[in-house]
């Protein structure tokens, strides 16, 4: 027995109680394992109240095996006697799964999902229609016709590749740069525009800034501005879907910046511990507004965090629609079959500015942006694939560009001409029922407008 | 004239804190005896008794058979009724599986299954976010935050998300079937982080409801209303009443309406408004006022903090009819202290003194 034991006994020497002896014996036993039965017997001394409990002294207590394996409840691992820190590997990180090269050619034929022509054309048309809509709505903001807009340039592949791999009823929680998912699910241009204009046709009733879309029939939960808040919510929805036995998963999109939020950590941990059928889909596009990934994290991106939570994870080329499709398809199949979460980190690049309030030339070079626009764009790569299969040609391309632009312009002009919703809609839906106080406030506004109406843009609003 | 108070105090052995048991193993209870020298003269004061006396309401006969229950048992009863009636309902939070640190969920996991009553990781923002997500699908989510003092990590999810879900989506989506429960208020020794009454932080957040009961009978009816209400609700449970408040409570489910204050005593001279534990403090203040000052007090239990029952409490026009300024009696603008709790809380003497000054205004 070493020094500590002697100190212990001396300090407690003044305690006459047999309890003191029992304490020191217990400590002795813990410090020098291998006392085995002798220590156990000592603990059973009569009068060692509390330690022996109510058991008769003849009964031996069974301890877990005293052989030399770790017994900690917190980890399942072996002992090691060499002091070594695990080195995070960021030089050679998790590899990036892809199906097509940058020229749209299949690399490994066994990975080609062999989607039928109609489906691939739908992917292509969804991406290009989104791109066209983005150009027109971005321009409309610059002209002061809508207040704000966010484009999806460069990330269209992440939207449609994943959306195509889901069931129509799978619930989608997004961040704000996933309009292509709605586009793939055939959300009408009129309704995209209605929300951006906040006009009388907006299902959201004009309450939110542009691009905060939502659609109940298409199972796309309304976007909110705070980042990453949707992540734990998506997990809860997945848990409820599991309980309902609905054969339904939830997909949750977020950017690599939002993944720094505490809500992301919360969501990952809950999904794993509560065994939820959810796909976490991270769009790693290189920037969170002006913050590059080197200032967002120091580890190997987002995919490397998954295993830390016990989540199966993969990194894919987000500009390769088929890679995104394959990964999402397989994750969906397993999530619903095994009730566990999956993490897909789709590497991509944000070609556009963060939003109309941003000018990204302040923090990145035009050359860098041009590289991605010209050399590695999801739309170009898929077009090359279509061309090489003979499923598309320049004539169809030209016709489609003209047609999609026409569709978008028509919807745009219509949306712009429509009135805004009745100001009464300022007051509804705060609660399911309108509280008396709010009704009084509504009446107070109505009276105010009777006197001061000329100072308000009432002509633009529905009566 | 109204005295508004929101702090409670008192002593209740907080078994949940577990402090008495932590420092030695589970079978060392006997160790304590004989280890400590006995307290003699000059030793520290004994721990104080509570600053209030719980006053049960007369038994309600309109909801069928009743049973003697304390506050935590009335909560368990409400949760039991909810899970029995609504197959989508689930209860989750830290430590709810074994019965909860205040025993509010005892027996429910065995009865309803581990997929319906389950522990979550230790993460309040996760608990509330997760609960919102369940509610978005239409299922009933009953989330427990272990102490109201720890609700702040979830503040963003509550204020920016839950409260605004229906409005911002144009009623396409909502999380109305979410209820958040949390132990609330002073307890005699809770100090900064086991005593808080944070309802004021939520009082100006449109879209949620905040409810605080004064008794077991009120708690069960109000909690059932919160659970069935189509809006996200926060239900604060005065922890000092968990064991101290005992009443006859109906076994079957019943609902007490939200956003309705209750005038529990009519009066003509002074109006006293409170909620939670403080209702019992001001009941005593009203008796003191009657005996010592001959003053007749109206007592109002607000019950729902937001949206609150303005019409019962006051009228906008009443401002000109007040004979004295409104007096607020509450804790000081400090964090909730530990050893100074007896001085901090708005006890009956402070309330009585405010009333006396008001009468003499």
From TrEMBL, chain A:
<keyword id="KW-0560">Oxidoreductase</keyword>
<dbReference type="InterPro" id="IPR029061">
    <property type="entry name" value="THDP-binding"/>
</dbReference>
<dbReference type="InterPro" id="IPR001017">
    <property type="entry name" value="DH_E1"/>
</dbReference>
<dbReference type="Pfam" id="PF00676">
    <property type="entry name" value="E1_dh"/>
</dbReference>
<comment type="subunit">
    <text>Heterotetramer of 2 alpha/BCKDHA and 2 beta chains/BCKDHB that forms the branched-chain alpha-keto acid decarboxylase (E1) component of the BCKD complex. The branched-chain alpha-ketoacid dehydrogenase is a large complex composed of three major building blocks E1, E2 and E3. It is organized around E2, a 24-meric cubic core composed of DBT, to which are associated 6 to 12 copies of E1, and approximately 6 copies of the dehydrogenase E3, a DLD dimer. Interacts with PPM1K.</text>
</comment>
<dbReference type="InterPro" id="IPR050771">
    <property type="entry name" value="Alpha-ketoacid_DH_E1_comp"/>
</dbReference>
<comment type="function">
    <text>Together with BCKDHB forms the heterotetrameric E1 subunit of the mitochondrial branched-chain alpha-ketoacid dehydrogenase (BCKD) complex. The BCKD complex catalyzes the multi-step oxidative decarboxylation of alpha-ketoacids derived from the branched-chain amino-acids valine, leucine and isoleucine producing CO2 and acyl-CoA which is subsequently utilized to produce energy. The E1 subunit catalyzes the first step with the decarboxylation of the alpha-ketoacid forming an enzyme-product intermediate.</text>
</comment>
<comment type="similarity">
    <text>Belongs to the BCKDHA family.</text>
</comment>
<keyword id="KW-0809">Transit peptide</keyword>
<keyword id="KW-0786">Thiamine pyrophosphate</keyword>
<feature type="domain" description="Dehydrogenase E1 component">
    <location>
        <begin position="124"/>
        <end position="423"/>
    </location>
</feature>
<protein>
    <recommendedName>
        <fullName>2-oxoisovalerate dehydrogenase subunit alpha</fullName>
        <ecNumber>1.2.4.4</ecNumber>
    </recommendedName>
</protein>
<feature type="region of interest" description="Disordered">
    <location>
        <begin position="49"/>
        <end position="68"/>
    </location>
</feature>
<feature type="compositionally biased region" description="Polar residues">
    <location>
        <begin position="55"/>
        <end position="64"/>
    </location>
</feature>
Automatic annotation (TrEMBL), chain B:
<keyword id="KW-0560">Oxidoreductase</keyword>
<dbReference type="Pfam" id="PF02780">
    <property type="entry name" value="Transketolase_C"/>
</dbReference>
<protein>
    <recommendedName>
        <fullName>3-methyl-2-oxobutanoate dehydrogenase (2-methylpropanoyl-transferring)</fullName>
        <ecNumber>1.2.4.4</ecNumber>
    </recommendedName>
</protein>
<dbReference type="InterPro" id="IPR009014">
    <property type="entry name" value="Transketo_C/PFOR_II"/>
</dbReference>
<dbReference type="InterPro" id="IPR005475">
    <property type="entry name" value="Transketolase-like_Pyr-bd"/>
</dbReference>
<dbReference type="InterPro" id="IPR029061">
    <property type="entry name" value="THDP-binding"/>
</dbReference>
<dbReference type="InterPro" id="IPR033248">
    <property type="entry name" value="Transketolase_C"/>
</dbReference>
<dbReference type="Pfam" id="PF02779">
    <property type="entry name" value="Transket_pyr"/>
</dbReference>
<feature type="domain" description="Transketolase-like pyrimidine-binding">
    <location>
        <begin position="69"/>
        <end position="244"/>
    </location>
</feature>
């Amino acid at each position: 027995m070493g020094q500590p034991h002697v100190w212990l006994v001396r300090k407690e020497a003044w305690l006459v109680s047999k309890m003191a002896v029992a304490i020191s014996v217990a400590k002795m036993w813990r410090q020098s394992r291998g006392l085995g039965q002798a220590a156990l017997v000592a603990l059973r001394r009569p009068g060692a109240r509390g330690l022996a409990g109510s058991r008769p002294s003849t009964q031996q207590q069974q301890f877990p095996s005293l052989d030399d394996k770790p017994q900690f409840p917190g980890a399942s691992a072996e002992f090691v006697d060499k002091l070594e820190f695990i080195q995070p590997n960021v030089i050679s990180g998790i590899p990036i799964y892809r199906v097509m090269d940058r020229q749209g050619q299949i690399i490994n034929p066994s990975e080609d999902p062999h989607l039928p022509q109609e489906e691939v054309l739908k992917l292509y048309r969804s991406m290009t229609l989104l791109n066209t809509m983005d150009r027109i709505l971005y321009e409309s903001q610059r002209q002061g016709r809508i207040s704000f807009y966010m484009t999806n340039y460069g990330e269209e592949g992440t939207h449609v590749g994943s959306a195509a791999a889901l069931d129509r009823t799978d619930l989608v929680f997004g961040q704000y740069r996933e309009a292509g998912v709605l586009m793939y699910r055939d959300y009408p241009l009129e309704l995209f525009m209605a929300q951006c204009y906040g006009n009388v046709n907006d299902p959201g009733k004009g309450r939110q800034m542009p691009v905060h879309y939502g659609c109940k029939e298409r199972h796309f939960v309304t976007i909110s501005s705070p980042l990453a808040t949707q992540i734990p919510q998506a997990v809860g929805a997945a848990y409820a879907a599991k309980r309902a036995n609905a054969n339904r998963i939830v997909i949750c999109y977020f950017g690599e910046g939002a993944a720094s939020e505490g809500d992301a950590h919360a969501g990952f941990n809950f999904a794993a511990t509560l065994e939820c059928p959810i796909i976490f889909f991270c769009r790693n596009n290189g920037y969170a507004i002006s913050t590059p990934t080197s200032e967002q994290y120091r580890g190997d991106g987002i995919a490397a965090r998954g295993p830390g939570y016990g989540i199966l994870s993969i990194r894919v080329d987000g500009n390769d629609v088929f890679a995104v499709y394959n990964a999402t398809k397989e994750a969906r199949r397993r999530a619903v079959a095994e009730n566990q979460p999956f993490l897909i980190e789709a590497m991509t690049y944000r070609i556009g500015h963060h939003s109309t309030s941003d000018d990204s030339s302040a923090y990145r070079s035009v050359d860098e942006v041009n590289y991605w626009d010209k050399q590695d764009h999801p739309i170009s790569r898929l077009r090359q694939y279509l061309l090489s299969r003979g499923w598309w040609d320049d004539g169809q391309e030209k016709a489609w560009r003209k047609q999609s632009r026409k569709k978008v312009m028509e919807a745009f002009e219509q949306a712009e001409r429509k009135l805004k919703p009745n100001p009464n809609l300022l007051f509804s839906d705060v609660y399911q029922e309108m509280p008396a106080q709010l009704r009084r406030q509504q009446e107070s506004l109505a009276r105010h407008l009777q006197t001061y109406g000329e100072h308000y843009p009432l002509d633009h609003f529905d009566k | 004239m109204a005295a508004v108070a929101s702090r409670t105090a008192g002593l209740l052995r907080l078994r949940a804190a577990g402090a008495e048991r932590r420092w030695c193993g589970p079978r060392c209870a006997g160790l304590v005896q004989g280890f400590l020298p006995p307290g003699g003269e000059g030793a520290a004061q004994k721990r104080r008794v509570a600053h209030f006396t719980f006053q049960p309401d007369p038994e309600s006969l309109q909801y069928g058979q009743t049973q003697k229950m304390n506050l935590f048992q009335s909560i368990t009863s409400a949760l039991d009724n909810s899970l029995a009636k609504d197959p989508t309902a689930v209860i989750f939070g830290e430590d709810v599986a074994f019965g909860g640190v205040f025993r509010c969920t005892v027996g429910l996991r065995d009865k309803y299954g581990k997929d319906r009553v389950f522990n979550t990781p230790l993460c309040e923002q996760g608990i509330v976010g997760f609960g919102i997500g369940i509610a978005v699908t239409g299922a009933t989510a009953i989330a427990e935050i272990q102490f109201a003092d720890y609700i702040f990590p979830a503040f963003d999810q509550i204020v920016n998300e839950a409260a605004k879900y229906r409005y911002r989506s144009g009623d396409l989506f909502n999380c109305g079937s979410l209820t958040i429960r949390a132990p609330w208020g002073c307890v005699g020794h809770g100090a900064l982080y086991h005593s808080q009454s944070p309802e004021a932080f939520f009082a100006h957040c449109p879209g949620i409801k905040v409810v605080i009961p004064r008794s077991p009978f009120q708690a069960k009816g109000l909690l059932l209303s919160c659970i069935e209400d189509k809006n996200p609700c926060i239900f604060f449970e005065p922890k000092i009443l968990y064991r101290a408040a005992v009443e006859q409570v109906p076994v079957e489910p019943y609902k007490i309406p939200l956003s309705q204050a209750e005038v529990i005593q009519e009066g003509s001279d002074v109006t006293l408004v409170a909620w939670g534990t403080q209702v019992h403090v001001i009941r005593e203040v009203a008796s003191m006022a009657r005996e010592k000052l001959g003053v007749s007090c109206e007592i109002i239990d607000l019950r729902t903090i937001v949206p609150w029952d303005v019409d019962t409490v006051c009228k906008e026009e009443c401002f000109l009819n007040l004979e004295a300024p409104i007096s607020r009696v509450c804790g000081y603008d400090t964090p909730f202290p530990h050893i100074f709790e007896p001085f901090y809380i708005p006890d009956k003497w402070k309330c009585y003194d405010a009333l006396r000054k008001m009468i003499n205004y």
